[in-house]
Structures are given as structure tokens and as C-alpha cells.
Design brief:
By secondary structure, this protein is of the alpha+beta class. The chain has 9 helices and 9 strands. Bound molecules: the ligand CSCCC(=O)C(=O)COP(=O)(O)O and zinc ion.
């Protein structure tokens, strides 16, 4: 190979199972050596059937879409340093990223696929572990019938939990638990948030269409405490989902936020609107302005 050709080849992104990431949570030295040896493609047997789950020329196929979204979210600081992630539910199939990998470098071949009903993996890349966020994503699918769940480590999300922790912006509607919720109103971007938790097309009891929040509504996002291990957040996240039937997100103190929607578009736009509101509130706080009346 000519030197210029070699240089170009080295610049091409490689699937995770070919490069490793040095993250001990994912691949130790022994595992990395193991991936150099010829191996069966996957653990579960029918290679062609498994590959059909992740190979598609459609950029919106979940295996392609998750990789693409993570590259975009990386530039926003949402999934840097391997933190955060995205999961998509596609019919009965749940697509999940691997754990501890550089999320912006993922390829469709790195994806895990789980059956929604049995919770069994239909596809499991051999040398990778499924995201530690999996139980949290499943909670959004099970309890909110979500079609997509996004977890960010955005610094705006973390900062807003710290400001609420300091008790500087108690919510008048919840005086007993002033630090357990982030509330904001009278900001236009609130209209980007659905009223019903999973989707604006949902119909509430009595036939009322839920739609999105209005300018004078108060958006409330519960905050749960962080745990040493991501998967241990599941119980508190489920409790928060139950206690706040209108929320489309749960903040995790000193960690980030989980946001879901009925489909990728709704989860993504809600994550964007929330990040905007978190940032705005942090900046308002710096200026001594209140964000809830
Ligand atoms: C520095 S990331 C710590 C783990 C975490 O909070 C996270 O969101 C990523 O989990 P994953 O298992 O998907 O890598
Ligand atoms: Zn996280």
C-alpha cells in the first residue's frame, strides 16, 4: 500500500470490535487480544438472521440512526468520554449501544438488539457489554411506551441539579420537596415539551388531547439522586416516572438526564428543548433571575 493510501485507511472509523477503547469496563488486554483471533461473529447462532437486524441502507434504521445521533450528540457535549447514550425501540426490537465505548465512534455492527417481550438478546456483539443504561431505557419503554430514550451527560443538566440541590429555586407547588424537581415557566421553549410523558398524540382520560405544554404552563422535571452504578438508578427512576405522570424526563443529580419520546424525533427535540431550558436557567441563575413564578 502506498503511504498516502495507508494514511487515508488509518483515518477511516473502525468498528469497535476492531480497535478497542482501552476502557477496562469493556475490554481488558486479554479481551483485546482475543478479538484479534478468528471468532464466531456472534454468540447466538444464526449469523445471517442477526446481521439482518443491523444491516440496512436506510439511514433511519435504528442501528444506523443510533450511531449517527451519537456522533451529533458528541458535538453537543452530551455523550463525551463514553458517558450517555441512545436507545431506540423498533417494533418488538430494542436497539442498545455497547457500554464504555466512545459513543461517537460506534458502527451499526456494535449494536445489541433485545426482544421487547422476552428481554432476551437477539444480537450480542461478542467482546462488548450492553450499555449500563439498559434498565433505565427499558423503564421508559415499559412505563411510558416510549419509542426512543436519550441519556445525556450535558453539563447544563448536571448544573441545574446542583443549583436545585442548593435549594435556591424552590418550586412553590412542591414546598416540601424543593430540591427534588426542576420547574420553569413563561419561557417559549417550554412549548417543545409534551404534556403527557410519552407523546403529544396521546389521549388523556376523558378524551382530552394532551398536546404540548403552553407558555403559561409550568414544566416540572423530577430529580433523583445518583448511585454508584448506573443500573442502580432504575428503582428511583421508575418511582419518579410514576410520581410525575406528565414528565418526559428525569434528571439525575450530579450525573445528567434521561429523556424519552414516542419516537426518535420527539425524544430528540425534547432533549434539545430541555437542554436549552437547563442552560437558560443556569444563565438566569447567574444573573440573579428567577425561572419560575
Ligand atoms: C463516564 S461514563 C459512566 C457511565 C455512565 O454514566 C453512562 O451513561 C454510560 O454508560 P454505558 O454503559 O452506556 O457506557
Ligand atoms: Zn450516565
Amino acid at each position: 500500500m502506498e503511504p498516502a493510501e495507508k494514511k487515508l485507511k488509518a483515518m477511516e472509523p473502525q468498528p469497535y470490535h476492531q480497535i478497542g477503547n482501552g476502557n477496562s469496563n469493556t475490554m481488558d488486554v486479554e479481551q483485546q487480544q482475543k478479538v484479534m483471533e478468528p471468532q464466531p461473529h456472534h454468540q447466538t447462532g444464526d449469523e445471517n438472521a442477526e446481521d439482518a437486524l443491523i444491516h440496512s441502507s436506510d439511514p433511519l434504521h435504528p442501528a444506523n440512526h443510533i450511531s449517527d445521533l451519537c456522533r451529533r450528540f458528541y458535538t453537543l457535549g452530551w455523550v463525551t468520554g463514553t458517558g450517555g447514550g441512545v436507545s431506540i425501540r423498533h417494533g418488538d426490537h430494542i436497539y442498545l449501544a455497547p457500554s464504555g465505548v466512545q459513543k461517537e465512534m460506534m458502527r451499526p455492527t456494535d449494536m445489541f438488539v433485545m426482544d421487547y417481550h422476552t428481554k432476551q438478546y437477539l444480537r450480542r456483539p461478542l467482546v462488548l457489554k450492553p450499555s449500563a443504561c439498559t434498565p433505565l431505557f427499558l423503564a421508559a419503554y415499559t412505563h411510558r411506551n416510549a419509542g426512543c430514550c436519550i441519556h445525556t451527560h450535558s453539563q447544563w443538566a448536571v448544573l441545574i441539579t446542583l443549583i436545585c440541590e442548593a435549594g435556591l429555586q424552590p418550586d412553590p407547588a412542591h414546598p416540601d420537596t424543593p430540591t427534588a424537581v426542576f420547574s420553569i415557566n413563561e419561557i417559549e421553549q417550554i412549548k417543545g415539551i409534551s404534556r403527557g410523558g410519552a407523546g403529544s398524540s396521546e389521549i388523556a382520560e376523558g378524551g382530552r388531547k394532551l398536546g404540548n405544554l403552553g407558555f403559561y404552563d409550568t414544566m416540572r422535571i423530577p430529580i433523583i439522586e445518583n448511585t454508584a452504578h448506573e443500573e442502580d438508578l432504575k428503582g428511583e427512576l421508575e418511582k419518579a416516572i410514576e410520581a410525575w405522570p406528565e414528565t418526559c424526563a428525569v434528571l439525575v443529580r450530579r450525573h445528567g438526564v434521561y429523556v424519552w419520546g414516542k419516537d426518535v424525533a420527539q425524544a430528540k427535540t425534547q432533549a434539545e428543548s430541555l437542554d436549552y431550558l437547563f442552560q437558560l436557567a443556569v444563565e438566569m441563575h447567574k444573573l440573579g433571575l428567577k425561572w419560575v413564578s
